[in-house]
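Run log // design_07
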């Protein structure tokens, strides 16, 4: 039986996701870089969020015995690692202050962490909901 995540953990996960996502995008909005650079960083963020959720889902599915193809599992891991590499290369070569580079790196990682934990909480809450027995039903355990 899966335990439902606490309200505090659910809230903290959503706060991490929103702070990372909104902070990263406010930084992009206010940045003096060209629009194509802003588009690059925004695309890396969105791809990173998607791939983080995909990795979390694949790992969880495999732990629960739900079939996941090796190809999709591998693509998910390559995708998350690729987004980190793309962000690193982009920031390494960017003509922005080192403090701005750090801001984008940590906002990105916070958003990725938030996406993973929100996905985990959603999955745990659903599993807990599905494992609740109707009133009067007796378990055989």
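design_07 sequence
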């Amino acid at each position: 039986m899966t335990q439902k995540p606490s309200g505090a953990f659910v809230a903290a996960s959503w706060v991490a996701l929103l702070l990372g996502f909104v902070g990263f995008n406010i930084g992009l909005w206010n940045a003096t870089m060209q629009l194509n650079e802003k588009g690059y960083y925004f695309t890396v963020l969105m791809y990173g969020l998607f791939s983080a959720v995909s990795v979390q889902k694949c790992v969880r599915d495999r732990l629960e015995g739900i079939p996941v193809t090796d190809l999709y599992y591998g693509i998910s891991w390559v995708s998350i690692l690729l987004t980190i590499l793309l962000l690193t290369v982009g920031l390494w070569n960017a003509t922005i202050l080192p403090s701005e580079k750090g801001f984008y790196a940590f906002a990105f990682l916070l958003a990725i962490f938030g996406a993973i934990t929100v996905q985990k909480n959603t999955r745990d809450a659903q599993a807990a909901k599905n494992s609740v027995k109707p009133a009067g039903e007796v378990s055989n355990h």
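The chain has one domain: 7-128.
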